[in-house]
Write the structure tokens for this entry.
Amino acid sequence: MLSGPCRQVTSALLGRRPLAASVGAAAWSRAVHLAGPRPASDSAGPSQASPPSGFDAALLDVLVCPLSKKPLRYEMSTNELINEELGIAYPIIDGIPNMIPQAARMIHQNKQQEEKEQE
Amino acid sequence: MVVCRSRALGQLSGRGWKRALLSLRPPWAWVRPLSNGKPKADTHFGFETVSEEEKGDKVYHVFESVAKKYDVMNDSMSLGIHRLWKDLLLQKMHPFSGTKLLDVAGGTGDIAFRFLNYIKAQNQRRQQRELKSHQNLSFGDIAKWYQNSRCSLGESHVVVCDINKEMLKVGKQKAQTLGHKKGLAWVVGDAEELPFDDDKFDVYTIAFGIRNVTHIDRALQEAHRVLKPGGRFLCLEFSQVNNPIISRLYDLYSFQVIPVMGEVIAGDWKSYQYLVESIRRFPPQEEFKEMIEDAGFQKVAYESLTSGIVAIHSGFKL
């Protein structure tokens, strides 16, 4: 079914014959579309060392604090999910939120509570 | 005891009362584990007896050490049959486009990937049927159709939850290798205290994970909580073999061959010793079915596979 534009594109790629201006350009752009998802299509998130790749806002709809079952707020600067009520923050490591209560840190204290490495 | 009861009564207000009424457990069991009033109990870790706190840690370390070789070991130990079991689980689930799945103890993502492939294949078949019914399409239309069929997942989504970061990391890498970009989310969470809101998921699966949970009843209750009304609970787990001859062969294989394989392939005898022991400790089909019913599920049924080596339990939240 795609033989028409496909043939034009492949022959253009092989450099056998030059693409006719309008048709070729249209076919080329269509082929680029079909080639795969464009790499620049992801929205430019905050440029941190490990960007919250894969942590999408869709998760925020379902995620709640495991202790109080209340919704969380995503804090982009520290890359954490914050429960204001209890004053705790769950870290997001490599785009995977860690929702184990032992891994959360208290935010009301001035010095950070050491994250327990148990879980 | 008086203190416990008053705290339990306090929990009757709010969301505690619904859960308390549903489960017919004695009052002192209503107290949540974060409080210090719960008496320290012992449980099993394979054939050992350990305290409940220890079990969680020990299980965590088992999976932390086997994470990288998990898939290889699964293939060697079950001679590849675990793939069939997981395929059968998906067939039983028979998801349709738009299903929201929660895969607990999903670790390396086997169930999640199968789910995504199933939905994609289903959507592609449907779109091909639609396309065949259209006549006289121009090349532009056909190209546009193929473009749209790229993201053929629709609203379907799967959240993989596991208590172990290492297993999830392996799973995430696998997802990248296999090319699953959309419709997938990874969360570190405890099956006994799921970080998800009520009534959120259409299907809850736990494959070969529930026997590692310290408090199975709590995990079942959490499963009941996060499912939408009409949602389905599916559990694929090792169970009791019903045939005596096969049972003896299975025991021989489990205790003589598997730990050795574990040592040779993964360099870890003890973890695989734990694995085969934990299988023996898990309740048989009928007992587990009753536990599921206690959590509030209805129409609970099970299907034994491979003469009972594994069983798929299914229940509905109605």
About this structure: The first strand of chain B starts at residue 42 and ends at 45.
